[in-house]
Amino acid sequence: MPRKRVTLADVARRAGLSTTAASMILNGRPDTRLSKEAHERVHAAAAELGYRPNVAARGLRTAKTLTIGFVSDTVTTTRFAGGLIKGALEAAEEARHVVLLAETGGESEREAEAIAALLDRQVDGIVFATVRARELFVPALPEGVPAVMLNATSSRFPATVLPDEEPGGRAAVRLLVDAGHSEGIALIGQSDTAERDVFRSRTIARRVAGIRGEMADKGLGFVAEESIWMWEPQHGYDAVLDLLRRRTDVRALLCMNDRLAFGAYQAAAELGLRVPDDLSVVSFDDDEVAAYLRPGLTTIGLPHEAMGRRAVELLLGREPAGEELVPMPVVERASIGPPRGR
Amino acid sequence: MPRKRVTLADVARRAGLSTTAASMILNGRPDTRLSKEAHERVHAAAAELGYRPNVAARGLRTAKTLTIGFVSDTVTTTRFAGGLIKGALEAAEEARHVVLLAETGGESEREAEAIAALLDRQVDGIVFATVRARELFVPALPEGVPAVMLNATSSRFPATVLPDEEPGGRAAVRLLVDAGHSEGIALIGQSDTAERDVFRSRTIARRVAGIRGEMADKGLGFVAEESIWMWEPQHGYDAVLDLLRRRTDVRALLCMNDRLAFGAYQAAAELGLRVPDDLSVVSFDDDEVAAYLRPGLTTIGLPHEAMGRRAVELLLGREPAGEELVPMPVVERASIGPPRGR
DNA sequence: TGTCGGCGCTAAAACCTTTTAGCACGACGG
DNA sequence: CCGTCGTGCTAAAAGGTTTTAGCGCCGACA
Questions:
Q1: Is the peptide bond before B295 cis (omega within 30 degrees of 0)?
Q2: From B72's CA, which of B109, B244, B289, B308 has a CA 20 to 30 Å away?
Q3: Which residue range is the domain that position B70 belongs to?
Q4: Which tens digits make up the pLDDT trace of A58-88?
Q5: pLDDT digits (tens, 9 = 90+) for B256-277
Q6: pLDDT (mean) for A314-339
Q7: What is the largest CA-CA distance in chain A?
Q8: Membrane-crossing residues (chains A, B) (predicted)?
Q9: Which residues partner with B135 through β-bridges?
Q10: What's the structural domain count of chain A?
């Protein structure tokens, strides 16, 4: 490796031209009238010396750093944020951008710190992501710095990328109906009567609306609705175990997420019920565990990677901002079967 | 938000001093002999204007950007990298640094691209991480740019952070022995006879050495060793199901990772065996699923977060480089019990 | 009497790039 | 012969910071 980084001046010197000329040629400015051979000499010199422009110096002049900031509340819990980040990273890479990562842990003080740190580095834009879709209060940014919300919303920034939950909810119901279920379907994790007027999140509300809408369209109703606050396996286990002991007419479970479904599997096993023979299960997220379960869990996936990608495309593109809904994929595995007596 | 960013010149002007003076005062240079009141005026002006130094411009002069690069092969598979990144992020934040993330997917071409992109942004150092600990071929970096390997090794860079696998392996064995197991212990995922001379990774080799060392010290041997290539639930399930059908004297499973243990749980359930009454299980990683299983899986954790943190501390500190081993925590849950007949 | 160092500060260079303004020169139209 | 235009290129400024070199004055010291 060279001792010193080679600079534009080095290239220009070697080509026998001014740095201005070298700059213009390397940046392919259209209106210039430098000679053919000047072009050749500069390109040759740059190649021979292995010249790479200093992005920091360029940024100083142009106020563009080819760098975007990604601030999320949590990067680690589950691998949710991982998918968002991966998609963002890929889209950024394609646009020859690079991403600065910052984590806030949900604390607004750290968030302010993080934003300032990013701004100090002259980022070209910022995407704000949350792991559980929610309204985020984001301080104003200096003008000229665009922002897009990822799996979150903000009154300040209209550009938003969210999963398209309503059709997702409908799809889940349809999977059960198409398999022949019409009675004995229980909803796990959400109960309108128990949670009336409680705010979970905008996206969850839409998911529920989709589910109820599709049930209504088919003229169906749930045989039971279990309200669960924390959507973790333990609570899914408790609630489903209780439910299945109380009622013997439950044939299918519509779980609000995969971790609840995970607990439901455990409860079913406890009672000697087989999935999907005795009990069909469908849920949401396409979490890592969904593939590990046996039989594999059929689920409506959260399209994290696509969302992350879309967010930076929106940030970098000059499209008018708005709410963008990314379709949720149906991931069919083996947890749904035809209804059977028990 | 202000229309234009306030610059050092603005502060100096308002304080009635030169930018030089303002710079010296704000940076707290020790040898300077500017007056007390000059200090006050400058600090007051900076505070009133909300001045923040332009890190890019400063970096141009000082060749320090308070930015470090984090290049990993995969950011998303499992949430492994997530822990590494989180630790790194926290340590960086404490040192007022910020991290530039790049992903290579393991392809050396993308890696070279990523490194160049980071270097173009004048990062102060780079940490190279892999998800599965392995030797990484890293191209030379320009001098003055330090690097540390995280969960990976490189012949070029001696600074390395790895989990301390040998004691980890010993601890796993000790957990079983302390619970009273001496016979009927099976090793799942690794078989020396089947995999002689096969290279998995440096860390896995040490884990195995620890396991065998401790077994030998206690005068014990495995009742069976199942070689498994892909450490995924499906394969754990297949191997353990087969094993438990073949032999009825297996009382404890030492699994090479939590996903294999997950499969083992499923196999045990299939055969009507209860964990830990009929079968004790211990494994490695403290993966997310370990807490979801019932009973909770006792496991030797991979200290990802501490490793990530240590890596940037090493990168930023001026300590002499070497191999640093981070202790693996014993995470006791409920999957180990006293041996019992079957 | 000459020199030296301390004082409190500043002008200018340096970092690397892009952008603006313009130079010298020849050709060409009127 | 004068003005204009096109050609191929460069000097210099700009962007925001840090660093180096030094200025003008005064008191102390040899």
A1: yes
A2: B289
A3: 62-162+305-326
A4: 999 999 999 999 999 987 666 678 899 999 9
A5: 999 999 999 999 999 999 999 9
A6: 94
A7: 88
A8: none
A9: B153
A10: 3
What is the pLDDT confidence band of residue A341, given thresholds at 50, 70 and 90?
A: low
Residues A103 and A177 in one domain: no
d(CA B264, CA B189): 11
CA–CA dist A153, A133 (Å, integer)? 8
**Positions on chain D within 7 A of a protein C-beta:** 7-12, 14-21
- The residue written with tokens 């600065």 in the block is A100
CA atoms within 13 A on the CB side of B6: 15
Q: What is the pLDDT of residue B340?
A: 83
For residue B198, what are its two tokens? 């096969």
What's the pLDDT at A77? Answer: 63
> For position B229, which CATH number holds?
3.40.50.2300
Is B306's Cβ below 8 Å from some Cβ in A? no
Whether residue A2 is contained in a domain is answered as no
| Nearest alpha carbon to residue A55 among B121, B126, B124, B66 | B121
Q: Which residues on chain A are in Cβ contact (under 8 Å) with B57?
A: 60
Distance CA A9, CA B199 (A): 49
Closest CA to A66 of B102, B62, B126, B111: B102
Q: What is the pLDDT of residues A112-139, one digit of tens each?
A: 999 999 999 999 999 999 988 888 889 9
The protein footprint on chain C, as nucleotides within 7 A of a CB, is 7-12, 14-21
Q: Are residues B142 and B241 in the same domain?
A: no
Cβ separation A76–B60 shorter than 8 A: no
Q: How many CA atoms lie within 13 A of A308 on its CB side?
A: 26
DSSP-assigned letter for residue A41? H
Count of C-beta atoms within a 10 Å radius of residue B300: 27
| Higher-confidence position of A340 and A207 | A207
CB-strand contact B247/D, under 7 Å: no
Q: How far is B53 from chain A (nearest CA, A)?
A: 7
Do the bridges between strand B252-255 and strand B185-189 make them parallel or antiparallel, or are there none, so unpaired?
parallel
Q: pLDDT tens digits for A186-241?
A: 999 998 888 877 777 889 999 999 999 999 999 999 999 999 999 999 999 999 99
B81 contacts on A by Cβ (under 8 Å): 82
